[in-house]
Amino acid sequence: MIPPFRRSSSTGRSSAARGAPEGALSQAELDLLTFFLDDGAAGGELDSLGRWLRDFEDRATAVGLRLNRGKCRLSVAPGATIPEALQGIETCPLDEIQHLGVPCGSPEKMRVFVEEAAKGAERKMRMIASLPDAHVALTLLKFCAGFVSVVHLMRAVGAVFDFAGIDQATQSCLATITGIETDASAWALASLPVRLGGLGLHSCADTAAIAHIAATFDGEACLSSLVTPYVLPHAMLLNEDDTFLASLEDPRLAPFDSVLEKIQDVLQARDNYGGRGQKVWSTTVHGERRKALLDSMTEELGRSGQLQGPALALKQVQIRARIQSCSGQHASAWLYGNAEADPRLWLSPAELAVAIRLRLGLPIAPMPSICRLCGTGSADVDGVHARSCFSGGRRTRMHNALRDVIADFARRGLLAPAVERPVFSNTERKRPDISYVRDGTTVVLDVAVTFPLQPSNPQYAKRAAEKPGGAATAYATAVKEGKYRGIIDNEPNPREWLAVPLVVDTFGAWCPGALTELRQIARKSALREDRTASAACQDFFHQLSFQVAQGVARIVIASGGARPDEAVHPVAGGSVTASRVFLPGRTCSLAGQPRSQ
């Protein structure tokens, strides 16, 4: 359980030093005092405990709080005389003590409780995996099962119990939903936060120790206002509390020296713990895990011997570029849908499976074949050719879908956008995708989608590997900016014109200039629709991100990894023939919604 906080002894901090009334709790000699927010546990001699409880209730009343005695439990030895101050509180055996809803009276009862909770989480995940809509099921897995369903247990019991079973159930649920069996590297990436290029399916086993340590320190803020004087006896935590010590010595934390140093600073009172420890420390751990994962993936590629020289170097850069691009702002807005958005903005099971495979760097086919879009190129197992192929008109459809979403939001913001109309006085050949007048300036927008891993231009991959949106920025600078520079310079008043390339890569990362302009459009629409700018941006970028993810997935599926008359290849645990994708328990066309078989 959460390690105890104890009141100060005669040599400890005085009540006056903490700004409390002199003599507060001066007669309460407790052996145990631990709090997590408004839930606490106190232990000691019954008379001392009674005096402490009376004083505690007086102090709580003074700050507008009330002790709910109906929810309190008193554990005493058989035959003990209960003082008047503790009368009326329900008693229970020592081995049935609970704190924060978790049994702590005996290790055996705690173990059974955690195991039952884990079984409940696994049952919930099996139910989620059985849903016919894969994208909705994935969203429920992220927000309603797995990590989020047991985080309170991790904060209570820490690394004493192994939560690896929850992680295995989450991985199995993901495989059932998408038909994707993830290897060690892919699952390590999937367990990273979405903002770092993962799927946000956090590992319970890797987080339990940090959660418990943070919960220990989080109780200090509550104690400082309700229980005075007190100290946090760090020596006791390190020497007497097995649960805290097990979390602190968890081997999963050993590689992260920076986090351990921060925890030691708090323990030795060198740092004033300001709360939010679980989020802050987990963020540091996730960042270092991502760096280690990138290093291991590139090193493993070199050890495999499959590639040599420049080809190996390019592939290693492409791995980093892929994960960096997936980490871009709003790049992953499609991943978990938007409950308030159009119900059509959910991927079909086939599209979702392809999008997840591309994100995790998994093959989409067992062997290469001839591209069904152009009929000449090789549709490789990684989907590189498909995302570079301009045949079939599907890239144009994706471009037009993005253009229409942007124009719709601009129209909702009363910007009166013109779509693909001549606006320049010196030429009618150049028709920007969208144009409108804002604050006296004519803004022309040119929408483009680029593939950062294209072999013909390795410079894009290098730029994408450096920072999210690097490939989009490089394409905007090299291609789009020069396209309009000369035309605008020849206008009568060049300063009244602004050309903005809206370039996004196939993983969803936008160039910085595009993000700035798109946010302005969202804010304009928010003012006219009486909603916050944040809500408008979320809705806007979700729609844009969805169009990119769906468009890319449809291109890859249409290119095909196998001819209809050849052996079909698995996608999402099923098979692909022509433009239809068959999955276990689900059938969908490229444009249709999934339906049960």
The radius of gyration is 30 Å
The strand line-up of the biggest sheet is: 9-10-11-12
Give the overall form: elongated
Distance between the termini: 48 Å
What structural class should be given to the helix and strand makeup?
A: alpha+beta
- Please count the beta strands (DSSP E, at least 2 residues each): 16
Strand share of the residues? 5-15%
List the total number of helices.
19
Biggest sheet record: 4 strands, mixed
Mean pLDDT: 80
| Residues in helix, % | 40-55%
- What low-confidence regions span 5 or more consecutive residues with pLDDT below 50? 1-28, 562-597
Task: Write up what this structure looks like.
The chain is α+β, with helices and mostly antiparallel strands and 597 residues long. Helices cover 48% and strands 11% of the residues. The chain contains 19 helices and 16 strands. It has helices at 46-62, 107-129, 134-144, 147-157, 164-178, 184-190, 204-226, 234-239, 242-248, 257-267, 277-304, 309-326, 349-360, 384-388, 394-412, 458-466, 470-489, 512-529, 533-559, and strands at 30-36, 39-44, 73-74, 90-91, 98-99, 102-103, 369-370, 378-379, 418-419, 434-438, 441-450, 497-505, 575-577, 580-583, 586-589, 595-596. It has a four-stranded mixed beta sheet with strand order 9-10-11-12. A four-stranded antiparallel beta sheet has the order 13-14-15-16, with no helix packed on it. A hairpin with a 5-residue loop joins strand 15 and strand 16 (595-596). Helix 15 runs antiparallel to helix 19 and helix 18 crosses helix 19 (533-559). The longest helix has 28 residues, at 277-304. The radius of gyration is 30 Å and the shape is elongated. The two termini are 48 Å apart.
